[in-house]
Design goal:
- The protein is mainly alpha-helical and about 180 residues long.
- The chain has one domain: Tetracycline Repressor, domain 2 (Orthogonal Bundle).
- It has helices at about 5-25, 35-40, 45-50, 55-75, 80-90, 95-100, 105-115, 120-140, 145-160, 165-180.
- Helix 8 (about 120-140) crosses helix 9.
- The relative contact order is 0.12.
- This is AcrR family transcriptional regulator.
- Keywords: DNA-binding, Transcription, Transcription regulation.
Length: about 180
């Protein structure tokens, strides 16, 4: 069967988007290839055809999701550093981001999975993280401030998602917003 031009690329993009959302919601290690494929409306064979393995899919998800995050962070380059930081922190450290990990950032959702992955996958993550850090450093004007910014917001989201109480989640988010923008 011959597919229309662009069909395979479109299916790959759909698979990356759906697999990224499913993995961020349930964890990559805890989600089987069949479930990741089903989320995209394809067979598990399509996963292997596009990515070679589940690890290959994780690598592609990391790149795709980090590119999406960097695209969000690079919007409105004319904003002042203070305005940019306040807006990004408010968006990131939000109730919506706690409640809907599938539509949020890869880092707080999958960093633990990546930490347990093989070295090549961790290298893909490191390369993407360093690129994000460089882009944020350009915005903030300093390399160390970019690491501090990323560590604070990602760490706060990990902690906020890990606790049960809405009150404690709100305290973590508020304290972290103050630490980053205060």
């Amino acid at each position: 069967m011959r597919y229309q031009d662009g069909y395979k690329d479109q299916k790959r993009r759909e698979l990356l988007k759906a697999a990224g959302a499913a993995a961020k919601k349930k964890g990559f290690a805890a989600t089987g290839v069949d479930a990741l494929a089903e989320a995209a409306g394809v067979t598990s064979g399509a996963v292997y055809a596009h990515f070679g393995s589940k690890a290959g899919l994780l690598d592609a998800v990391i790149v795709n999701e980090m590119e999406r995050s960097r695209a969000r962070w690079s919007r409105n380059p004319e904003r002042s550093v203070e305005t940019w930081a306040a807006e990004e922190v408010a968006r990131y450290l939000s109730r919506a981001h706690i409640d809907h990990p599938e539509s949020g950032c890869l880092m707080p959702a999958l960093a633990a999975d990546v930490a347990r992955a093989a070295a090549p996958t961790r290298q893909v993550f490191e390369d993407q993280l360093k690129q994000a850090q460089r882009e944020i450093a350009e915005r903030l004007g300093e390399k160390d401030k970019a690491w501090q910014f990323l560590s604070q917001i990602v760490g706060a989201m990990v902690l906020a998602r890990a606790v049960v109480s809405d009150d404690v989640q709100d305290e973590i988010l508020a304290a972290s917003r103050d630490a980053v923008t205060g």
